[in-house]
From TrEMBL, chain A:
Pfam families named in the record: SANT_DAMP1_like (PF16282)
Bias (Basic and acidic residues) ranges: 18-36
Organism: Citrus sinensis
InterPro entries attached to this UniProt entry: DAMP1_SANT-like, Homeodomain-like_sf, SANT/Myb, Swc4/Dmap1
Name assigned to this protein: Myb-like domain-containing protein
Automatic annotation (TrEMBL), chain B:
Organism: Citrus sinensis
Protein name: Transcription initiation factor TFIID subunit 14b
Highest taxon in the source lineage: Eukaryota
């Protein structure tokens, strides 16, 4: 209320018409008895909200049958090894101090670091890159710092990368585990044995991660563009492949070949000139693949069809992007090459070859037009 | 089996995230039969059955015995490309003749699927093939133009040598049923592609004693001497040569384009 006074905002007009209705509203308005106004303001204040705290709880007194005192008592911490005695305030109920260990002792967890004997070292753990002293030092640090390798790497006397240290540690632990196991199958389920630490992969992963993190905004945008383009191409390829895999493996291969060739052309070309050459050939090849895919799908829907019919449909799909004159020129080219416009022996292989030939001629004609 | 497959997925080591992912994969592999069943059904879709057929007609000029309305004796037929029995797939063939014929709709219920008639005119015959129930419930239509007169008009017609026009085609069943596959897996009239790995067909139904049935194949058919041979080899060679030519032309074009750009 005084906040509003300070701000100079007029006090809110609360309806005080009905007593019953205004009662719950009035209660937060009126500061409750028993506690001071400032304390109540901490809990949500005198603003017209539903109180989040049960007001009666605020002034609850401790059960009066118990006698509570606070005493300054010594205690020991089982997590410590040196029997240090410290003092703290303890809530004593009826003269009985609380029992049990120091309540935070249970949080003192540590890692079980493998301990090897010297003989074991000689037998299993020798390594050209590591001396025994270094390995011992490493293990001591691991024990001390609970396998926090970043810290260990920092403290390690000779300079070794985190990955090298990890590699040595995991390698030694694994070897010891296998050596100590009564039989190999016992430990084959252990994660260390099944998935050994892979240094090169880790190095690579961290490098890639740091690259990604340090990318500038510009690079990010370019990457997103390239990925979207690649996804589009693979999607259209997947569509054709999923539709009829045995029937048209050659089709998608040639289609992707021409797309690849066109992309290669695009790379060698300077952006300003001749950009129509690759783009024009990429577009028909991807749309041809899409058309073939839908034709294949519709053919599959028929429960039976003739091979010649299928070929007709596929030829139509492939030539859908071409005009009538182009189609006539394709047929002319076929005749010049001595190929029947409609194969005399339309087996699966022959039809596939015929279709491919038509597509190639189409590509050739399109290129010649440029 | 569970262990090996889940460890396969984990091959390149990822020691950090072992625990939870291992469990997940074990749960996924707990129902192998269902996955296999799904696989089986999926693989059936990639298997297509094709029946190479040849359909057409053979027509003999009747020579002296020819009348105005009956100048030729002809037979229209559908046969297996290598003269195998098509009865394993086709239940019935219906030949729709010109309306001037009596009962122009002629049904042939058993192989060899052929129809002989005499007449003077050339017209289109619609052949409808009906398949067995487990093969396909939809019929397939073929159209053949009946040819009686030889190509070169000046050529003399002989009673000994008929006019033969045949067309090669293949009937394709893109998604055959299990029972169909089982029934025909070793039949010479049927072309099956190489089956995917791990795909096992149910055991074939034993073929009935062929001597009891009338022969359905056309290997020793009276007209067999006039049947044409269709070999895909020539066509394939032709196509291969053509493709090579086109390929080299394309390569040339690309080289030119690259040189121009540089």
């Amino acid at each position: 209320m005084d906040a509003k006074d300070i701000l100079g905002i007029p006090k809110t007009q609360l309806p005080t018409t009905q007593e019953k209705k205004s009662r719950p509203q009035k209660e937060p308005q009126r500061k409750p008895d028993g506690i001071s106004r400032e304390v109540y303001a901490l809990t949500g204040g005198l603003a017209p909200l539903m109180p989040s705290i049960d007001v009666s709880q605020l002034k609850k007194r401790p059960p009066s049958d118990e006698k509570i005192t606070w005493q300054w008592l010594p205690f020991t911490n089982s997590a410590r090894k040196d029997n240090l005695q410290l003092y703290h305030w303890v809530r004593v109920v009826n003269g009985v101090p609380p029992t049990g260990d120091y309540s935070f002792a249970k949080y003192n967890k540590s890692v079980d670091v493998v301990k090897y004997t010297d003989e074991e070292y000689e037998k299993y753990l020798t390594d050209p890159m590591w001396t025994k002293e270094e390995t011992d030092q490493l293990f001591e640090l691991c024990e001390r710092f609970d396998l926090r390798f970043i810290v260990i790497a920092d403290r390690f006397p000779s300079s070794r990368t985190v990955e090298e240290l990890k590699d040595r540690y995991y390698g030694v632990s694994r070897a010891i585990l296998i050596a100590r196991a009564p039989s190999p199958t016992d430990v084959s389920g252990h994660p260390l044995v099944k998935d050994p630490y892979n240094v090169s992969q880790e190095v690579e992963r961290k490098r890639a991660l740091s690259m990604v993190l340090s990318q500038t905004k510009h690079q990010e945008r370019k990457d997103a563009e390239v990925l979207a383009e690649a996804k589009r191409i693979t999607d259209s390829r997947m569509a054709s492949r999923a539709a009829e895999e045995p029937e048209m493996p050659v089709a998608s291969h040639v289609g992707s070949e021409s797309a690849d060739r066109a992309v290669v052309l695009g790379d060698t070309v300077s952006p300003s000139s001749n950009i129509q050459l690759p783009s024009a050939t990429v577009v028909p090849s991807t749309s041809i693949i899409a058309d073939s895919a839908s034709t294949l799908a519709s053919l599959r829907m028929l429960r039976v069809y003739l091979r010649t019919y299928a070929l007709e449909q596929m030829v139509q799909a492939a030539s859908s992007s071409a005009g009538l004159r182009t189609i006539k020129r394709v047929e002319q080219a076929l005749q010049e090459l001595g190929v029947n416009l409609k194969p005399k022996v339309p087996t699966k292989a022959v039809c596939a070859e015929h279709l491919e030939l038509r597509k190639e001629i189409l590509t050739l004609l399109n290129l010649q037009k440029q | 089996m569970t262990n090996s497959s889940s460890s396969k997925k984990h091959g390149p080591g990822q020691p950090e995230e072992i625990g939870p992912t291992l469990k997940l994969q074990r749960i996924k592999m707990s129902k192998p039969e269902e996955a296999e069943k799904r696989n089986l059904n999926k693989k059936l879709k990639d298997v297509e059955i094709s029946i190479p057929i040849v359909y057409g007609n053979v027509a003999f000029w009747l020579g002296k015995k020819a009348s105005e309305y009956q100048s030729h004796k002809w037979t229209v037929y559908v046969r297996g490309a290598t003269n195998e029995d098509l009865g394993v797939v086709i239940k019935r063939a219906v030949f729709q003749l010109h309306s001037s014929f009596n009962n122009p709709t002629r049904a042939v219920e058993s192989p060899p699927f052929e129809l002989s008639e005499s007449g003077w005119g050339e017209f289109e015959i619609a052949i409808t093939l009906y398949f067995h129930a487990d093969v396909c419930d939809k019929p397939l239509n073929l159209y053949h133009h009946l040819k009686l007169y030889p190509e070169d008009e000046s050529g003399s017609m002989s009673t000994k040598k008929p006019v033969v026009v045949e067309s090669y085609d293949e009937i394709v069943f893109p998604e055959p049923s299990d029972s169909f596959l089982a029934r025909v897996q070793n039949h010479p009239a049927v072309t099956l592609p190489r089956l995917p790995v791990g795909f096992t067909l149910p055991p074939p139904v034993p073929i009935e004693d062929t001597s009891k049935r009338k022969r359905g194949d056309t290997k020793d058919h009276p007209l067999a001497q006039w049947f044409m041979n269709f070999s895909e080899a020539d066509e394939l060679l032709q196509l291969a040569a053509a493709r090579q030519q086109t390929d080299s032309a394309l390569q040339r074009m690309i080289k030119v384009a690259e040189n121009e750009i540089v």
